[in-house]
Amino acid sequence: MVERRIYTLISFFLAFAMAAPLFANTHYYDTLYLGEKNPENFSGRTFPSVHQNEYLGSFEDFETQYYADYFDRFIVKDLTMLKAFFQTSVPMGMNCPNSVLDRHVDYIQYSYRLLNLSYLYEAFSDYHQLSKLHASMEDCQLNYQELLNKCQPKTSEMKNFIQHALVFLSKYNDFRLTSTSIPATQNALSQLLTSSKASVLQSRLQSWCTKKNCKSEQVVSEFNKICYADKKLFQKICSEEDDLYGSANNILAFDLLSRSNVINVFNQEGLALGCLRRYSQLKKNSEEPADFLPGLYAQIRQNLTTQYGNRFLQGMLFIPGALREFTEKGLTEIFEPKIHEVIEVTKIEPNKELGDEAKIEVKAKPKEEVPKEVVIEKPTEKTEKAFKVAVDILANEGVQQVDLEMLKFKYDYFFTPETIQKLDNALKKYSSHSMLSNMKKKDKLGEKKAPVPLSFIKYMIDTENHQSLFNMTLILSDKFYIFNNFEDEVSKVYLIQLKNDISTNYAWQISLLKN
Questions:
Q1: What is the three-class DSSP state of 393?
Q2: In whole angstroms, how far apart are CA 60 and each of 47, 101, 435, 506?
Q3: Other beta carbons less than 10 A from residue 364's beta carbon
Q4: DSSP state of 350
Q5: pTM higher than 0.70, yes or no?
Q6: Which residue intervals of 34-143 are DSSP H helices?
Q7: What is the pLDDT of residues 112-130, one digit of tens each?
Q8: Which whole-number Å values give the CA distances from 19 to 12, 15, 22, in the listed order?
Q9: Strand (E) or helix (H) holding 364
Q10: Arithmetic mean of pLDDT over the chain
């Protein structure tokens, strides 16, 4: 009897959980799930149909799922469904439930667009410096009024941003990136293709020419094309016709928004970071990524940090667009056009009693108060890192294994351009069977005496360097020791298991194990 009640309770709970999407707000569903998707090519033999995971945004083909649960379906079908529910729906739903995401989905999309516009404008400022050095680079000249007036915004948020940006730039347009002075010679311009100390414009040119196979004599014409293409992208974004959405291929975008004041707008429930992550995860299969943006972001952020510390990490154009928090509190005229005092002069007819002298009455309109400068404070939201959470659970809950929340781990740490360069160079040691075998044999790599840096594993996962990761698990086994160099914990070592198989849905999973 008790077993029957438990079974009934579980069945009811499952039915309610499975029906939950049916009660989701239509706006949330339309925004995130409708439209063209880009699933991977099917390579199976029987069931080519696919479905999109409601919480992860990933595509799962029915054939893989069918064989993964083949025996479970003959044992306890409901418990299998319950297991999947707790592994996927519950963690993602707790980080950002459907109802919360529905309330804030439009502003989250606007925030990502605003950040992309701001960083593109920083690039335009740098392009403009070079346009002064060569007469034919007209497309690289920056006229902010012409640029913004070509925007055709659809939503009130974007319309307000365009209005505020025009006023803001009329006052503070000189506040922008300054580029290195480059002599206006063809030879010097050609050296932009090979310079190792790349500025923003050099990084963009080198990225562009890698695909276009540019030659040195084509630098000027190619840079004109870059400027034209980037301005077109800017106009698509400000007209809200872009396909970037959550910029899922650009992790720095998440980091910059999480440090900005805009998350205060959708953090009433304390779930802003979770919703940012979930939105980006859900939209990654819908967006057409701009491959050059991650590199551009890294270079611009480095320059902004060098010049201003952490004060203006989101760029100058982000400021007039991130005002909703203040307008909701009554500060509606933060970036309004300055209205000068107007004096009305009225001529009065001569008064016979006072003679023929005309009187002039002067009426002055009261001055409008100039709003004080708004100081945008850094949000105070604090969240534990996924690795730290797993360590605490393993130490305090009496379990033998804890799986890292890999989506959260992806966004917990970010690599600077210098770190990326160092990791690219050092990664060669971890790329071949021979090097790994030698290090395993001579240096005891993967053991307590020579643990593997966590940053290497994360970097290989982030860059989808699957071959190096499989080589590592083949030589070191899937269980080996690491140290968390992100937190400078050199003296502490952790035993982990690194897997990528059917049990992890063919995604890399890090699990902490008891020693």
A1: helix
A2: 11, 23, 36, 11
A3: 9
A4: P
A5: no
A6: 62-68, 72-75, 77-84, 90-95, 98-131
A7: 999 999 999 998 988 887 7
A8: 10, 6, 5
A9: strand 359-364
A10: 75
